[in-house]
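User: Before I run my own analysis I want an independent prediction to cross-check against. Here's the chain; please return only the structure tokens and, at the end, one sentence I can use as a sanity check.
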Amino acid sequence: MTRYIDWMLKLLKWPAALFLLLSVPALLQSYNYFNFMTVKFYAMGAGVLFYAATLVVAGYNTCHTMQVLSHELTHTFFAYLTLHDAGRVRINPDGSGGSMIVKGGGNWLITLSPYFFPLFAFLYMLVMPTLLRMSDGHWLVYGVYGYFIAYYWVTVLEQVHPQQTDIIKEGYIFSAILIVGANLYTTGMMFAFTSKSWNGIDIYLRLVMKLNIEYMQRLVVLITDNF
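Assistant: Structure tokens:
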């Protein structure tokens, strides 16, 4: 089963990249549909600022170690998600990075998952609706969510660079398309979750798909008109 999953992902690698590339205009337009002038987003923004403050107070080394940990745990999460046997996560004592062994070779989804999937924010999203019910929608719940979102963004920006072995392994062109396109999707879904919880994500994805179809139709008309 693991080999079949890896084979399917290998087959879908460049089609997925092409889809993400063509989705960029729709994803950028989709952000215009969010109303950021609400208490929810203000609280989320406060969480982002609080994380920025922790970077100064806690120091670079502490924050960097946590970033490496989340990076390796995300590899592990997607390894298990694609039915791979993942080895023990190791964090280098000198803070230079970490490692996680995937038995069976792995796939591009495992390799690049830390650069587009906010693991800690996702885990918090699973319990967030319950926390909101218990606290009667208290703004602090959204503030913590903003903290995890900022943690994810900073981690990605810190770890995406030309010397990154994961990016070299999957190739610069594919990695660039996947990381940019998938992060536009990820960010939009996190905003949608802030607006209307899990139902908001469903509405958001439907909107992006609708916009995608509109842009595809325009592209087809543009091509046919020039031939």
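Sanity check: The longest helix spans residues 172-225.
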